[in-house]
Amino acid sequence: MKPILILNGPNLNLLGLRQPEIYGHETLADVEARCAALALELGHRIEFRQSNHEGEIVTMIQAARGTAAAIIINPAAYTHTSVAILDALSAFEGPVIEVHISNIHKRESFRHHSYVSLRAEGVIAGCGTEGYLLALRRITSLLA
Ligand code: DQA
Fold it and tell me: Of the candidates 61, 97, 128, 141, which lies 20 to 30 Å from 69 by C-alpha distance?
């Protein structure tokens, strides 16, 4: 079985340090470890990546064509701006789940719109970092 790619956008490398009142105290490495452990339980393997660069994220999504079973993506700020990430995801053949740690609908109005949601099979927002684990469970059912 191909791995599930978990992609994280800009500033998520600062998870645990950045606005902990919104994003919590866990680091991205903590999230990766929890995802890897759950994936193992579910009979999957993950590749976990982060980038602050839009083009790099596009390239990683392109590379997932034919090599990843599914994508879980927290595009961070690019959620609200990036047609390029939407287009790259649209060229990917497997299921896509969009994750946001915070509830983007409870925040500033510019966060209410997501380009990525036009492609995602499902969206999880406001469940904290547990959203990644919920996304993994959903992807497992979609791939079954
Ligand atoms: C985020 C929400 C985005 O609006 C924000 O730009 C982020 C993180 C989240 O996980 O809640 O960087 O995607």
Answer: 128
